[in-house]
Amino acid sequence: xxxxxxxxxxxxxxxxxxxxxxxxLAQWRTASGIDAxxxxxxxxxxxxxxxxxxxxxxxxxTGRLDAAGFEHALAARLRxxxxxxPEPAGLLAGMFAGLHPDEAMWDLADExxxxxxxxxxxxxxxxxxxxxxxxxxxxxxxxxxxxxxxxKPDPDIYRLLCARLELPPQRVxxxxxxRPNVEGARRAGLHAVHHSDACATRxxxxxxxxxxxxxxxxxxxxxxxxxx
Length: 228
Prior knowledge:
Blueprint: E1 8-11, H1 21-32, H2 36-47, H3 56-61, H4 67-77, H5 91-95, H6 103-114, E2 118-123, E3 142-144, H7 145-148, H8 155-165, E4 172-176, H9 179-187, E5 191-194, H10 198-211
Parallel strand pairs: 1-2, 1-4, 2-3, 4-5
């Protein structure tokens, strides 16, 4: 089936407009002495496909749990390599301290705008502060999960994105580094690009924009494991 022309591209924030989430988390685990298995088990329980809908991560991402409450819940699940529990305060800041802007992806957003393609952001927030440049008018709309009470991959958040763009889903492309969020976008009818690195994502996205591709068939694959 031929796809309708793509008129807008929505970017995830962490891990797409920034450097790798996995790398930042690995740096934090090493610096803090966090036992990797305890963190993996926690992510699987709270963020995996079988996670309960009221898990602390789901509640954090939808704004029903604040940063302090999440940090206390997380500290109770983690252990350090010496067997001790970490202090709750500062866990979130430490987890994301290694994130930095991926300027190549910001340049891609500017390139798309110069081509006449609208650009937006759709991000699951972990009570984090977004940079001012995200709200400088480059991206419109900016949909943050904690502000709207919905989270990826809930189909309603993709519908909300499209409603704010005033476009049908088949005219919107979405870029994310987390495979479940990419699959959720496809199920909602959007084009989806699985982000690995700026070069591969740019190639996949421009191919989609220039040639027209059936919904859900465009990916930018990576050999790295995405987060749970």
